[in-house]
Design a protein that fits this description.
single chain, 13 helices, alpha/beta, Rossmann fold, 4-stranded antiparallel beta sheet, Beta Polymerase, domain 2
Length: about 425
């Protein structure tokens, strides 16, 4: 029943970071892309998810529009459309697309299994789509089914236990580096969500000699007050890179370019948490180790083992939620017919009451109104239950058409679902 749901995906499964960063979308670009999906491709329902590891479009359509979406994405990113990009695309439909969405949203499809950030990123993508009026009954119901699925995973399994994120992986690498070099000096560039997470993890591990810098000095001062880190003037931090052993950046707007003034020994490690990447590869020429988000993928062995052991439970819960969603979809098939029947009976009720209106006083009319309303509800309830049962048996279409013919119900001018 979910066949109208389609997926377009360019992710770490097929594309390296150098390919993915070509298609990376910021918030404004996501909203613009949603508008173009509607204007150019006549797609009425879509969610666009763009993270470090993926650009994905979940959309409702009778036919796959993979090639057209790629062309539109290339146009948005000022890239020449080319068949070379098709090798990086995954496209799915129906239950497979639903499973991909749910798995992505809880981190099963992340480089770091169970990545905690992806849930918030998917919620933000849903909000963007809602703001652009690109979510209707199908996607609203699907996303709320996903939210319930996520809650069950959290409450009924250990899959979300432990910590796994790119920020935590960066701190784990930094902690290992500190064991080999005492008095390691660390600089954190950018104090957005990921940068703040890095600071929190460093503080929990009691790693010393940490400095922070941010374009907004107030945010830097807040974290100084919270964690006791030193604040480096943002205007001067690029000139002070050689003073630090480890640099961790999540500042997407800041390019870190190699300068000859930087010594051959510092910084020894630069971790780039941005997509597109912001650190110049020329740092490798002076012996600096540069790590990007793809390089951080296998840093959390114990957490990964725990989460892998829970995947069978995750899969079981997914199939339970998929059955519920498909049941809802089947019911939307006959919902317009039930509404037509209810409206037809309501017209009969009103006409009958109008005929005898003068024969009763106001209190009697109120009583008759309540009783007749109750009768309508009872009458409609039986065919509704029969239609629901027919859904389970797979013959709802036959009963639905029979009901329309029996009561001479006209087809609604606008169908309320996309089946």
């Amino acid at each position: 029943m979910t066949n109208d749901l389609k997926l377009f995906s360019i992710s770490h499964y097929k594309a390296t970071v150098s390919v993915r960063e070509k298609f990376s979308l910021n918030n404004l670009e996501v909203k613009h892309f949603l508008q173009k999906l509607k204007e150019v491709l006549s797609i009425e329902e879509a969610i666009v998810l763009s993270t470090c590891n993926r650009v994905e479009v979940y959309y409702v359509s009778k036919l796959s529009q993979t090639k057209d979406i790629l062309k539109l994405l290339c146009a948005l990113k000022c890239l020449i459309p080319s068949d070379q990009y098709t090798q990086y695309i995954e496209d799915k439909e129906g239950d497979n697309a639903v499973e991909h969405l749910f798995s992505t949203g809880i981190g099963v499809n992340s480089l770091l299994l169970g990545d905690l950030q992806i849930y918030g990123q998917l919620k933000n993508a849903y909000q963007n789509a809602t703001d652009e009026n690109m979510c209707q009954a199908f996607l609203h119901r699907l996303m709320h089914t996903f939210f319930h699925f996520h809650k069950r995973i959290t409450n009924e399994t250990s899959f979300k236990k432990g910590i796994s994120s790119n920020g935590y992986a960066a701190v784990k690498v930094t902690d290992e580096f500190c064991k080999y070099k005492t008095d390691t000096k660390i600089l954190i560039i950018g104090l957005g969500e990921m940068g703040r997470d890095v600071c929190q993890y460093l503080h929990k591990k009691e790693i010393k000699n940490v400095s922070i810098t941010n374009r907004s000095v107030n945010r830097a001062l807040q974290l100084k007050e919270l964690f006791g880190f030193e604040v480096v003037d943002y205007e001067q931090h690029m000139n002070k890179l050689s003073e630090f052993d480890v640099v961790i950046t999540s500042a997407h707007h800041e390019k870190i370019v190699y300068k000859p003034s930087i010594t051959t020994t510092s910084p020894q490690l630069i971790i780039d948490l941005c997509s597109p990447r912001t650190v110049s590869p020329e740092f490798n020429k002076i012996g600096t180790k540069v790590l990007n988000i793809d390089d951080l993928g296998l840093q959390l062995d114990e957490t990964i083992k725990l989460r892998k052991s829970e995947l069978s439970k995750v899969n079981k819960i997914f199939h339970e939620e998929l059955i519920k969603f498909n049941s809802w979809l089947k019911e939307t098939y006959f919902t317009p017919t039930v509404l037509l029947l209810k409206n037809a009976l309501e017209e009969v009720r009103k006409d009958s009451l109008a005929t005898f209106k003068k024969e009763f006083n106001s209190s009697e009319l109120e009583a008759i109104e309540r009783v007749s309303n109750r009768m309508i509800q009872k009458i409609v309830q039986l065919p509704t239950l029969q239609l629901k049962e027919a859904c389970k048996q797979g013959n709802v279409a036959t009963l639905n058409e029979a009901l329309k013919a029996l009561f001479m119900l006209e087809e609604p001018s606008i169908h309320t679902s996309k089946i």
